[in-house]
């Protein structure tokens, strides 16, 4: 047994970690010291309310979209048998590798008046009215298509963990199939679904790339307008901290709404699935989602790459790939270990301050990347300044450390969820049983924790890896010399409007993101389809 | 388990520490922050290194981020030079005291005064013209005259514009404010918005594609985007019109550079800046993106020259920066998204 002193030391370490994550955010809050009423007044008088309205619309729309797609697909894959299920169940995760800004560009290109779809329609069905490719609905669809995998993945895990027994009991007790779903399966899966939804919404709030391609103005637009257009970084930081406040309130409400409901799931991963009458219909539905979110954009990118005379794979390009991969791996390992630590302390020393610290440490996901990067840059250069005053000429800004810290702050939420879930799988009773049976603590680690947590840890590792590789604004601002990534190259080409030329790095980025998705899904597929034993 | 986590954490931290030490630039090197991007600027730097042996390390990003970085780094900044597109961004950097004045005969001779900071803190490198583009199938060029005239009711439902969030449009409107005053300019911008055929576009190329497809008849674009499209498809039914030839002249902007306030190697930076205003570098800078050289002694690329000569606006381009905030606010008021 541990002593009290050791426990509070670990508690302190969590607070320290939360503080580290908080520093850039606090720097942003410090912006409130300088009032920027002129800018605020202007925004209030002109665009702010429209932007808030747009943002709310987008959140409601994306919630509906990811829930509809994510939950229904997860349910189908987890409980129904249909043609192609075995490969669709992992292929449906592929859109995760697609950066939102890339899908957005492909969508606008395809749907615009001058694009192939409307050109075709005008030619063959001239009576149809024209439509705008920059309609808000397309923004909702685009973001839903790239973000539904978060909900799908976590909901599927939950549905699969429920096992059929629960549902069968509900049916025996007189529920119809649909009411069994709504009254039993869905509420039980709620924590997983809510976690997936929270990730999707935080990403929606932070998104700038995709919405700016649609020219759909959201709250982030106001942030960037203040910074880039009105040369006012303080006002931008103030707006960003308001955004954060909004997220805090939303998360708090969600937690309250969930009340204290706990469901202990009766285990057993029975993979018995019923075959619906319209099995092919299910296949068609799942395939169309996959087609829209992944196959279509990838083939469009491929078309451009070929159209541009294929890509030039030279040493520089290979270097981009290598750096992208390296950054993804390093950041993912770092996030994983810190998230593991947080989850561990939260479990073994549950106190109010620890759980608050943990919640604070996972806020960064909702911050627009470049605002966060700005906060990190400012705080690092302040520390640099203090050190210089002490006679220590240490460079911090634009070092790998600064960049990795940015990734940790931004993506802690993505890694923490799966890690915490994985740890919860290891019920204390299991550990106690192992100890009672005489296992040493090393043995408990090796034979209980590691095998039980491995899938969750792997999930966290891969999710963070993918997100880091797609990350653009913080990488741009904080990268050391020579650390250009594929996302950086995409930015450079698109900044000059050369979208078609950006197809080569974009396609490479998607393919690179596929590797983790494949690993993730293959492992799971093997585990689930092999007999238990 | 805890030990495993701790080991991974330690390994990750050590790995970070390993990479974190970044060695300072060597004496024979220059450090440049540039928002003119890799594929356009690297050939220029490569040529310079070949000619002089001076190596150049650079970071690309957008101008606002690079400016914030310079500001945060202060006197510890490793950067010697800032290169941006759009004079507004250079004006902003100078306004925040991040650039130092430079008294250079070479630059004074090679870069026209209206494309240079009045206090010599930044200098134009290339010129970008923003003018009208139209469909020769549906528009008689004699009906076109100026940016202002696009607000006339005859263009109702025929005009395409790019978003007001793009700095190119902010600069255009800023120069209009300077010449016509806020009230008149706002009236014109409202007229533009009323004439829009569809939602504003997020890039110039998409705008021109819309004109070709018949969604609208006329728009405002930077000429190099036009050049790029024509290069891919010379038969495209799309033409340029030089705006405001009877009045203020075509709106021009620059990509340009200045030496940073705390440059560790100001002399070397000066050499590079002067070299970039000379013919060899001017060709490399301008031709690669079909822009115009600032140095009047250097001819634009053949393709670019084929679009004809034009009278350009002789207002100092720093106006774009000084009035950018006003322009953004004006466009917000006028409902130009």
What are the salient characteristics of this protein?
heterodimer, A: 533 residues, MetI-like fold, 21 helices, 0% strand, disordered N terminus, B: 337 residues, alpha/beta, D-Maltodextrin-Binding Protein, domain 2, globular
Could you say how many structural domains of chain B there are in total? 2
Mean pLDDT of chain A: 84
- Please tell me what the overall shape of chain A is: globular
Give the largest chain-chain interface (CB within 8 Å): A-B, 75 and 70 residues
What is the C-level CATH assignment of the largest domain in chain B? Alpha Beta
CATH architectural arrangement of the largest domain in chain B: 3-Layer(aba) Sandwich
Task: Reconstruct the topology from this structure.
The complex is a heterodimer of chains A (533) and B (337).
Chain A: H1 4-29, H2 37-45, H3 48-79, H4 85-91, H5 100-111, H6 116-124, H7 136-172, H8 177-206, H9 209-213, H10 219-229, H11 233-257, H12 279-307, H13 315-348, H14 352-361, H15 369-389, H16 400-425, H17 428-436, H18 441-470, H19 473-478, H20 486-495, H21 503-529
Chain B: H1 2-20, E1 29-34, H2 38-52, E2 55-60, H3 63-73, E3 81-85, H4 87-95, E4 99-100, H5 105-110, E5 123-134, E6 159-160, H6 167-180, H7 182-195, H8 204-213, E7 218-222, H9 223-232, E8 239-241, E9 251-260, H10 266-276, H11 279-287, E10 292-293, H12 302-305, H13 318-322, H14 324-333
Parallel strand pairs in B: 1-2, 1-3, 6-7
Antiparallel strand pairs in B: 3-9, 4-9, 5-7, 5-8, 5-9, 5-10
Helix pairs in contact in B: 6-7, 6-14
């Amino acid at each position: 047994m541990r002593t009290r002193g050791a426990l509070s030391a670990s508690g302190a370490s969590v607070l320290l970690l939360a503080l580290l994550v908080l520093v850039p955010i606090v720097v942003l809050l410090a912006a409130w010291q300088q009032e920027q009423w002129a800018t605020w007044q202007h925004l209030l008088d002109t665009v702010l309310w429209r932007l808030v309205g747009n943002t709310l619309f987008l959140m409601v729309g994306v919630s509906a979209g990811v829930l509809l797609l994510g939950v229904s697909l997860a349910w189908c894959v987890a409980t129904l048998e249909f043609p192609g299920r075995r490969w669709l169940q992992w292929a449906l995760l592929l859109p995760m590798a697609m950066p939102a800004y890339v899908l957005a560009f492909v969508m606008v290109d395809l749907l615009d008046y001058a694009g192939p779809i409307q050109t075709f329609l005008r030619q063959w069905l001239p009576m149809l009215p024209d439509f705008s490719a920059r309609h808000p609905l397309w923004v909702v669809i685009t973001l839903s298509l790239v973000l539904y995998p978060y909900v799908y993945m976590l909901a599927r895990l939950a549905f699969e963990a429920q096992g059929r027994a629960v549902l069968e009991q509900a049916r025996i007790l007189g529920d119809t199939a649909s009411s069994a779903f709504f009254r039993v399966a869905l509420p039980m899966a709620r924590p997983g679904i809510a976690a997936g939804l929270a990730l999707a919404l935080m990403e929606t709030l932070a998104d700038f790339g995709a919405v700016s391609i649609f020219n759909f103005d959201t709250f982030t637009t106001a942030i960037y307008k203040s910074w880039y257009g009105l040369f006012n970084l303080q006002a931008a930081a103030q707006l960003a901290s308001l955004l954060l406040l909004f997220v805090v309130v939303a998360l708090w409400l969600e937690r309250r709404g969930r009340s204290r409901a706990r469901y202990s799931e009766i285990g057993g991963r029975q993979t018995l699935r019923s075959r619906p009458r319209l099995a092919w219909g299910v296949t068609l539905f799942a395939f169309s989602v996959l087609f829209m979110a992944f196959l279509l954009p990838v083939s469009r990118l491929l078309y451009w790459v070929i159209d541009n005379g294929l890509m030039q794979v030279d040493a520089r390009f290979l270097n981009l790939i290598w750096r992208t991969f390296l950054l993804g791996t390093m950041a993912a390992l770092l996030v994983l270990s810190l998230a593991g630590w947080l989850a561990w302390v939260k479990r073994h020393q549950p106190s109010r301050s620890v759980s608050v610290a943990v919640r604070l440490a996972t806020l960064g996901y909702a911050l627009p990347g470049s605002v966060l990067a700005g906060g990190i840059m400012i705080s690092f250069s302040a520390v640099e300044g203090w050190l210089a005053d002490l006679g220590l000429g240490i460079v911090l800004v634009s070092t790998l450390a600064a960049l990795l810290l940015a990734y940790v702050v931004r993506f802690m939420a993505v890694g923490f969820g799966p890690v915490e879930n994985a740890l919860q799988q290891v019920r204390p009773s299991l550990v106690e049983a192992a100890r009672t049976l005489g296992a040493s603590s090393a043995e408990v680690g090796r034979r209980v924790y590691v095998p039980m947590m491995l899938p969750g840890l792997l999930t966290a590792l891969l999710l963070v890896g993918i997100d880091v590789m797609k990350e653009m604004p913080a990488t741009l601002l904080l990268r050391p010399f020579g650390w250009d990534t594929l996302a950086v190259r995409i930015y450079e080409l698109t900044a000059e409007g050369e979208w078609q030329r950006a197809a080569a790095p974009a396609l490479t980025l998607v393919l690179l993101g596929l590797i983790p998705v494949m690993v993730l899904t293959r492992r799971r597929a093997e585990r689930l389809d092999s007999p238990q034993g | 388990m805890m030990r495993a986590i701790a080991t991974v954490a330690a390994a990750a931290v050590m790995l970070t520490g390993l990479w974190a030490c970044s060695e300072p630039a060597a004496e024979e090197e220059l450090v440049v922050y540039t928002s003119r991007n890799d594929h356009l600027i690297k050939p220029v730097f490569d040529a310079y290194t070949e000619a002089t042996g001076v190596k150049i390390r650079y970071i690309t990003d957008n101008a606002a981020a690079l400016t914030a970085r310079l500001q945060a780094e202060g006197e510890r900044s490793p950067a010697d030079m800032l290169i941006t597109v759009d004079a507004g961004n250079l004006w902003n950097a100078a306004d925040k005291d991040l650039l130092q004045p430079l008294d250079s005969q070479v630059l004074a001779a090679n870069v026209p005064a209206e494309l240079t900071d009045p206090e010599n803190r930044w200098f134009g490198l290339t010129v970008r013209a923003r003018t009208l583009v139209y469909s020769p199938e549906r528009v008689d060029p004699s009906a076109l005259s100026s940016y202002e005239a696009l607000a006339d009711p005859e263009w109702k439902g025929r005009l395409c514009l790019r978003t007001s969030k793009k700095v190119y449009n902010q600069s255009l409107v800023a120069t209009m404010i300077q010449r016509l005053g806020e009230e008149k300019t706002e009236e014109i911008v409202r007229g533009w918005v009323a004439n829009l055929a569809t939602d504003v576009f997020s890039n110039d190329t998409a705008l021109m594609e819309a004109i070709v497809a018949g969604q609208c008849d006329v728009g405002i674009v930077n000429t190099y985007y036009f050049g790029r499209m024509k290069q891919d498809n010379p038969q495209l039914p799309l033409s340029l019109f030089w705006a405001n030839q009877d009045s203020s002249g075509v709106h021009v902007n620059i990509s340009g550079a200045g030496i940073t306030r705390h440059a560790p190697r100001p002399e070397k930076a000066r050499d590079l800046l002067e070299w970039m205003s000379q013919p060899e570098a001017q060709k490399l800078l301008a031709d690669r993106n079909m822009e115009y050289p600032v140095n009047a002694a250097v001819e634009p690329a053949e393709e670019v020259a084929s679009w004809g000569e034009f009278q350009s606006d002789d207002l100092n381009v720093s106006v774009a920066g000084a009035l950018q905030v006003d322009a953004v606010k004006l466009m917000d008021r006028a409902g130009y998204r």
